[in-house]
Amino acid sequence: MSAYLQPLINSMNKAADAENAGQMAAYMRDQFAFLGIKSPQRRELLRAFLKEYGLPSVEDTPHVTRELWDLHERENQYNALDILRRQQKKLAPNFVPTLEWLISTKSWWDTVDGLASNTAGPIFTNYPDVREAAVQQWRALENIWLRRTTLLFQLKYKDKTDAPLLFSLIEENLEDKEFFIQKAIGWALREYSKTDETAVREFVANTELSPLAEREALKWLKRQQSAAS
């Protein structure tokens, strides 16, 4: 463990709560061990650490996030996500290999979704050539989490969304029975419907979506329609 991270690890270990840990692990289907530190307290511990020691340099960020990712308890990966979120405007193309490793390692929705929208999204906005290369590579892989990232990285793009790319990625994944892929399709369409209702309605009407994806895609629009009635 690096000297930089050791104070954070010490404070996290000191705050561990075995009872909470069991409940949190159960919520995540016992896929990961937890220290048992709930989100508000964990964020406060991280804020206190960053106030005293500062963020890692951009050059050190890949190493720091990998160190946190390698630790056993899930809260450490959440701390890595929060550090990356604070660094998102500074991350350069050379972070993409680390980003791919993070997405592919200890993968579940609770880390991948944050990496998609808060890390991949900003990097791909700032570096379109990097986006094109990464998306073209990831969209063809068997790894569901990298493909889920291609579906979700534009969640916060709003009117900057590349709709043809989004629709193309969705069409490529229509026959995938994986829950997390179908859920991502619906989520991506639902978010884009807040920007371009017509485009989403037309796409849904003309595309054979799974029931899950279609239900998720139209959820916000139906809620708006009900509220207006």
Structural class of the secondary elements? mainly alpha
State the total count of DSSP E strands: 0
Q: What value does the average pLDDT take? A: 97
Evaluate the radius of gyration.
Answer: 19 Å
Named CATH architecture of the domain at 1-87: Alpha Horseshoe
Q: Please bin the fraction of helical residues.
A: 55-70%
User: Class of the domain at 1-87, according to the CATH hierarchy?
Assistant: Mainly Alpha
* CATH fold-level label of the domain at 1-87: Leucine-rich Repeat Variant
Strand content: under 5%
Low-confidence stretches: none
- The number of helices is 13
Distance between the termini: 58 Å
Order of secondary-structure elements: HHHHHHHHHHHHH
**General form:** globular
Q: The biggest beta sheet, please?
A: none
Task: Please characterize this protein's 3D structure.
- It is globular and about 55 Å long.
- By secondary structure, it is an all-alpha fold.
- α7 crosses α8, α9 packs parallel to α11 and α12 crosses α13.
- It has 13 helices and no strands.
